[in-house]
Amino acid sequence: DAGVEEKAEAWLKDYNTKLAVRSGIACNLNWNYETNISNANAKKIENNQVEQAEWNRKKAQEAREWLKKKTSKFSEDTLRQFKLITMDASLRDDADVRRMSYLLSQMESIYDKGKVCRPHSEASCLPLEPDLVNLMMTSRDYDELLWAWKSWRDVTGPPIRDLYREFVVFQNKAAKENGFADMGEFWRISNFEDKNLDKIVDGLFDQVKPLYQQLHAYVRRKLINQYGEKYVSPTGPIPAHLLGNMWAQQWDLILDLLQPYPNVPSVDVTSALKKQNYTVQKMFKTAEAFFCSLGMDNMTKEFWEKSMVVKPTDGREVQCHASAEDFHNASDYRIKMCTEIDYDNLYVIHHEMGHVQYYMQYSHQPDIYRNGANAGFHEAVGDTIALSVATPEHLHKLKLLDDIGDDKELREKQDLNFLMKMALQKLAFLPFGLLIDKWRWDVFRGHTNASNYNQKWWDLRLRYQGIAPPVPRSELDFDPGAKFHVPANVPYIRYFVSFLIQFQFQRALCDAAGHTGPIHHCDIYQSTAAGEKLKKMLSLGSSRPWPDAMEVLTGQREIDPSAILEYFKPLQDFLVKENKNEIIGWEENSEDLMAGL
Ligand SMILES: O=C(CCC(O)(O)[C@H](Cc1ccccc1)NC(=O)c1ccccc1)N[C@@H](Cc1c[nH]c2ccccc12)C(=O)O
Ligand SMILES: [Zn+2]
User: Fold this and answer.
1) Looking at this predicted complex, what is its ipTM?
2) Which of 119, 440, 561, 591 could be stapled to 207 by a disulfide with Cβ–Cβ 3.0 to 4.6 Å?
3) In terms of C-beta density within 10 A (0-12 exposed, 13-18 middle, 19 or more buried), how is residue 127 classed?
């Protein structure tokens, strides 16, 4: 009948207006909980979720009815909006909504409040941030590292384990009530519009695995030099607690043990930040200045007024794990993080501000489209900019690194030290970024269950990362619970995708900026041409399938690991030479990997 398209468009206009208001309400309630963890604030979220679930289900049903009409009359855009609205996995029964909400807030609260007390002195109980993070980064004492590693898992694992088991039941019930096979399938469809993402990521990892194994062999040798073969086997996996990070997800924080040329002056940025009396505010302003140099937006007045950028000292319990929030009103954007003055935090600030830049670029879109082209895109924005910031050239511009001089041999050595640092953050992360959701997808499928949560976790940690627990583990432990994204129920494959596509993005932006030469030396600072290209892609939000957005920025339509491999090519040659007498890889069949090393 005449006007069906107009009626559909009117329905969508009303839907998006209401969705923006509702998203803002939910974001405010989440913000209040994350910045003041209490049962009362959790209850407010729970009550809102009951009402929101009913509205989501009603709207998804109406969208399905619109799609049943003569869809030939509808524009591509109208069809896409209806399709996205039907991608909902809300629980039907209020009691289920309440129980699942309660389980999630309990798990988050255990993690966010987690503290580790030194034996016999309850006075000195250490939270994860900043205390345990700093200990894992700075201690070179095998047993002290082991104490922190095991204690954090004791504090978070067993208490979260049974909550998580029940939580998964509700997650799958929500997915199945809405026609999805399980929650893992729903995650792959809603975050990437591709339920076969699991096969795609396996193929991508296979392309970077040889380079990862070279890095692993090199690092293992360096750790043998530091701790001895008594603790680190030259043919086996690396003990999980020696890599400078609580989850061994990034290894750049022990660069001093690992860099190829330790005697070459490569001033460490953290001490430069401290020597120059950088404040948290100045770190944020430095990041903002980079985005503005590309022609991107300043942070808003409300951003500076309402963000939480330092851990409160008034006794409030907060979620320190960094996040960036969009209040869906085109002016209120906030970052929440417990900032410390060091290089890794400067990097995280760029990561979080990248989220805010995306929020601002797509704020004109209808609310249903205010998301990343896929979830990996959202994680890649800030990291891509940080690839320029991290270059010695840019750090020198910021006066955080001394001039790198003209001595050709010296430059070559400093270049390898720089590439090693980047590899220890980016390459080391890839298997970790892959395995968390491989574990969770199997949990949602029922292939992994409460009887083997930890066994399957350490199988994956051994198989993909070549990491093993330093002490025996059992099914009374729940080591996945020690990583924020599991108790917080935040999908993780987005970071694996991000760590590949950010190099694709950087290659395209460097080309737009007219950079010639190796892309690991590219700094797009002040290139408005690069900025224009990036903004053009970001402003799409999720209004187009992600291959279209990828094409707008890079000219390609798929995830292409050749960019990261090209970036690290000089290091790969170095590693192959360095490793000529090493066993590449690690024993897969260590009799019982749960037995610890
Ligand atoms: O978790 C984060 C950063 C936090 C976040 O910005 O990704 C945050 C996570 C979060 C999601 C939901 C609720 C609370 C926190 N995500 C966002 O703020 C966000 C913003 C817009 C859209 C989607 C998510 N990074 C990951 C992976 C990672 C990124 N860069 C790294 C560098 C080195 C090592 C790890 C990482 C990690 O720490 O394991
Ligand atoms: Zn992020």
Assistant:
1) 0.98
2) 561
3) middle
- Is 495 an annotated catalytic residue? yes
CB 100 within 8 A of CB 174: yes
Q: Which of 229, 547, 268 is nearest to 402 (CA)?
A: 268
What are the tens digits of pLDDT across the range 378-420? Answer: 999 999 999 999 999 999 999 999 877 789 999 999 999 999 9
Q: How many CA atoms lie within 13 A of 560 on its CB side?
A: 18
Do the beta carbons of residue 390 and residue 266 sit within 8 Å? no
Buried b (16+ CB within 10 A) or exposed e, 55-65: ebbebbeebee
| Separation CA 490–CA 494 (nearest Å) | 10
339 lines ligand 1 (CB under 6 A): no
For residue 349, give Cα distances in angstroms to 132, 304, 338: 20, 13, 11
Neighbours of ion ligand 2 (CB under 5 A): 379
485 is catalytic: yes
Residue identifier of the C-alpha nearest atom 2 of ligand 1: 322
Q: Is the beta carbon of 323 within 6 A of some atom in ligand 1?
A: yes
Q: Does 357 sit in the ligand 1 pocket, CB within 6 Å? A: no
Contact predicate 479/457, CB 8 Å: yes
pTM, rounded to two decimals: 0.98
